[in-house]
Amino acid sequence: MLQNTLLILSLLIGIGVCSCRVEVKRNEEAHMQTQALNTNPTHFNPQVPPLPLTSSKRFEGSSEFVKLKYHMGPVLSSPINIYLIWYGKWPQSQKLLIKDFLLSISTRSAPSPSVADWWTTVSLYTDQTGANISRSVSIAGEYADLRYSHGTHLTRLSVQEVIATAVQAKPFPVDHRNGIYLILTAEDVTVEDFCRAVCGFHYFTFPSKVGYTLPYAWVGNSGKQCPEVCAYPFAVPGYMGGGGPGHLTPPNDNVGVDGMLSVIGHELAELSSNPLVNAWYAGEDPTAPTEIGDLCEGLYGSGGGGGYIGSVMKDGQGRTFNLNGRNGRKFLVQWIWSPVLKACAGPNALD
């Protein structure tokens, strides 16, 4: 485990700490002026190449389709505090985009279909007491590791060491009840199995690494490394580029980060419904579960499947989206398995 003295030294050489309470109003106002909602979007059901590398399973825990079951573990039923760890150098505009998505989960004022409406499906899941996953999600803190304190290549275990650095440096409390820790790696950071087998994963920290058992998720920015794998359908493999359907235009004009947002939504939904890997999943092996996001991978609207992502919307500039968020943002986020409908569901459904 990292020693406090080493952590203090690492802080002195430049690991940055920031507070989520600092509002960058000027940037948000500029964004709102240039991203006004299109009140008359067009609907379409684009055909795109099938998900690349589907057989290798892009999300940790995927396995063969079997019946979803509840295994008596906890869900995140208390108000959810997200602690953001920005690993590497992140432009402020990209940070704002990701934070707008996270804060949209609890924003009830966005037009329908909204991110908050999408999270309603996640909130249908309960624990053994009947308590639902919370619909209250907030950003409780931020930590910027500007100097890549654990290098530019991370393993699954060193991702936990990144959390240890943030927690032991004291910008974050150890929030056992309400907290989840979200590690986001910049586009120049490589991670074990990233692009080859996963775009994101969630688990819980080991006391031997962090000192505590804490739910966490990691998602990487694939913009320069593998957008055709992890930013689908905003990028498709090069060998599919000629003579067939192509990529879609991202709603915020950033292939890497717009692609990340659907992965972030996928992982947060699964982390909330299966934080200690003993709650909601399919299959008999908790080390290889199929979770509520895995069951709907690649579906974004009604009529999806067979190379179609489903019916989504397109604004006046041709940008594709299926959800509205805060500050006039638009997002394209995959659907989630509904325990009520026993099917994939989203608020932009046409039926």
From TrEMBL:
Keywords annotated in UniProt: Apoplast, Secreted, Signal
Gene Ontology cellular component terms for the protein in this record: apoplast
Signal sequence residues: 1-20
Record flagged with keyword Signal: yes
InterPro entries: EXORDIUM-like
Record localization: Secreted, Extracellular space, Apoplast
Primary location recorded for the protein, binned into one broad class: secreted
Pfam families on file: Phi_1
The keyword S-adenosyl-L-methionine belongs to this UniProt entry's keyword annotation: no
Domain of life: Eukaryota
Family affiliation: Belongs to the EXORDIUM family.
PANTHER family: PROTEIN EXORDIUM-LIKE 5
Official protein name in the record: Protein EXORDIUM-like 5
Organism encoding this protein: Psophocarpus tetragonolobus (Winged bean)
